[in-house]
Amino acid sequence: MKLPIVAYGDPVLKKKCSDIDKDYPNLSQIIENMYETMYNASGVGLAAPQVGLPIRLFVVDTQGFEDEKPFKKTLINAQILEEKGEEWAFNEGCLSIPDIREDVWRKPNVLIRYFDENWKLHEEEITGMAARVIQHEYDHIEGKLFTDRLPLLRKTMLKSKLDSISKGKVNTDYKMKFPAINKKRS
Known about the structure:
Layout: E1 5-6, H1 27-40, E2 45-47, E3 57-61, E4 72-84, E5 88-94, E6 97-106, E7 109-115, E8 121-127, H2 128-141, H3 152-166, E9 176-177
Parallel strand pairs: 1-9
Antiparallel strand pairs: 2-3, 3-4, 4-7, 5-6, 7-8
């Protein structure tokens, strides 16, 4: 089932998420729905807060990037243990912040520990575009958005666009859920 993607301005996107256990209700269905939602929106990653759940879960599939080894994973209770290498810029976007793309500087390698959907513990070093997508989604479960990594002047210049998104003044090919504080009262 395709889920609505939470738009910029919703408090769940700024919340540090909680760990879950293998008995979390409907976890398999949530993961399946998150993949379906991500693919429907042409995304390469999707974190649980983006579908309104403040839990440490995200999915990644980088098959759309040329010259990259395919990387598809479900990461539960992820912890980045180390980021290393020389930072590089890449023009990032976010399904919760449609129509805005900005250069974000990130390190090219991450050492990460996480559980997969079968509750097998992994600790691995990931490089390249997969590492970048993981860092972006990891930021989501830490309550950060890619816009938080931008210089103050750039954030200021984007303020009106961000405000428009939070008010629902944006068109997407996927269903979105806008912050309750901006809904008209009857």
